[in-house]
Amino acid sequence: MARILGIDPGSRITGYGVIDCEGSTLRHVAHGTIRTADGPFPLRLRSIFEQLSQVLDEHRPDAVAVEQVFVNRNADSALKLGQARGAAICAVVVRDLTVAEYAPTEIKQAVVGTGRASKEQVQFMVRTLLKLGSLVQPDAADALAVALCHHQHQPLRQRLARLRGCKA
Fold it and tell me: Which CATH number fits domain 2-167: 3.20.20.10, 3.40.50.620, 1.10.3720.10, 3.30.420.10?
């Protein structure tokens, strides 16, 4: 059984979701959000690092997947998001875990079937796939979707790793 932690980074709200996977069997373990207080940006990054560290220590994932930065129109927002991702990734790599990264469209494609799915569609499919009784808050649902995407991509990643090993 593999435990996957999905992370949807944000400078104000970072979502996380933990699932257990055995073959095609999926089980929801936990989900939530890390909310940073108002104040200096470096302290918000520290808060993301520390709170995500607690999640990692509590749930001890075997694999971690993070949503990549989506750059729209606001460069300042993209930079802050990138720094929040950095704080999250640092919390992971100091525990000697590797980080897989997926584009937002790739995550939506894996979970909903279309890369242009709405937040509501992602929430609905996460609820359905993990057999949850109620809708999950959007940032946590996005994080669970990241974990689900990683689970779906694992067989391909493993095959590619074996092929690379054969060529060395």
Answer: 3.30.420.10
Tens digit of pLDDT for each residue in 134-159?
989 999 999 999 999 999 987 666 66
- Is 142 part of the annotated catalytic residue set? no
Catalytic entry in 20, 101, 139, 142: 139
Angle at 134 between CA 107 and CA 117, to 5 degrees: 25
Question: Does 8 qualify as catalytic in the annotation?
Answer: yes
Whose CA is closest to 11, among 78, 74, 107? Answer: 78
Mean pLDDT of the chain: 92
Q: Domain coordinates of the chain in residue numbers?
A: 2-167
> Closest Cα to residue 124, out of 60, 2, 113?
113
Query: By mean pLDDT, which of 63-77, 80-94, 110-124 is the weakest?
Result: 63-77
The average pLDDT across 105-126 equals 95
Q: What is the mean pLDDT of residues 26-33?
A: 98
57, 67, 76, 96: the active-site residue: 67
